[in-house]
Write a structure and sequence with these properties.
The complex is a heterodimer of chains A (about 120) and B (about 120).
Chain A (H helix, E strand, L loop, with lengths): L2 E3 L4 E5 L4 E3 L2 E3 L5 E7 L5 E7 L5 E3 L5 E5 L4 E6 L8 E10 L5 E5 L3 E6 L1
Parallel strand pairs in A: 2-12
Antiparallel strand pairs in A: 1-4, 3-9, 5-6, 5-10, 7-8, 8-9, 10-11, 10-12
Chain B lengths: L4 E3 L2 E4 L5 E6 L6 E7 L5 E8 L2 E5 L7 E4 L6 E5 L8 E8 L9 E2 L3 E5 L1
Parallel strand pairs in B: 2-11
Antiparallel strand pairs in B: 1-3, 3-8, 4-5, 4-9, 5-6, 7-8, 9-10, 9-11
The chains are: A mainly beta (about 120), B mainly beta (about 120).
């Protein structure tokens, strides 16, 4: 069964500083990988996704993530954090379902705090 | 930009009561899902629905839960007899045919509180 580990529960960065959120996954085949962001009281917004091809993927709001098969990692990065990036970030791995669609398994999330 | 909507945003109910959570997926999507997030815990898969039937369900999705697509636009989750431990945020998601429905788009959630 697939699993996702986000080792950092909380991260605090200063506005303008760079950010890296860690994600490690376990999956038997080529994974579909996602990062979602959840602001307080809001739903889950898709930041970016990796299916295949270029291992560096670009997303919305200036985020990017790099897939490293050898390390089973899909870390999220942003070169310069803005105060509005404060939120909870979830990494997820998707497994195809034989009946159609896919099932997402989420990590426990990383709460990002941005200091002004 | 099309989005998934959910109603109500909040629901408070008494233990043992039935609740129905409603979702309107993105209009051309074919795959529909429910997830839940107990406060302070990770988001968990409940069920997926495709071609008018459940394609997979988790261990959480027992006989107290059911899903339905009563018409061409709504997708509902019913909890027949709520328990205290059903208190959670429930998210609906949908995906389209592209890439076999891999990318899921989530609604804002319904926060359910069982007293």
């Amino acid at each position: 069964a697939q699993s996702v580990t986000q080792p950092d529960i909380h991260i605090t960065v200063s506005e303008g500083a760079s950010l890296e959120l860690r994600c490690n996954y376990s999956y038997g085949a080529t994974p579909y990988l996602f990062w979602y962001v959840q602001s307080p009281g809001q739903g889950l917004q898709l930041l970016l996704k990796y299916f295949s091809g270029d291992t560096l993927v670009q997303g919305i709001k200036g985020f990017e993530a790099e897939f490293k098969r050898s390390q089973s990692s899909f870390n999220l990065r942003k070169p310069s954090v803005h105060w509005s990036d404060a939120a909870e970030y979830f990494c997820a791995v998707g497994a195809m379902l034989t009946g159609g669609g896919n099932k997402l398994t989420f990590g426990t999330g990383t709460q990002l705090k941005v200091e002004l | 930009e099309p989005e998934v909507t959910q109603t109500p945003s909040h629901q408070v109910t008494q233990m043992g009561q039935e609740v129905i959570l409603r979702c309107v997926p993105i209009s051309n999507h074919l795959y529909f899902y429910w997830y839940r997030q107990i406060l302070g815990q990770k988001v968990e898969f409940l069920v997926s629905f495709y071609n008018n039937e459940i394609s997979e369900k988790s261990e959480i999705f027992d006989d107290q839960f059911s899903v339905e697509r009563p018409d061409g636009s709504n997708f509902t989750l019913k909890i027949r007899s709520t328990k205290l431990e059903d208190s959670a945020m429930y998210f609906c998601a949908s995906s389209d045919q592209a890439s076999s429905g891999v990318t899921q788009y989530f609604g804002p959630g319904t926060r359910l509180l069982v007293l």
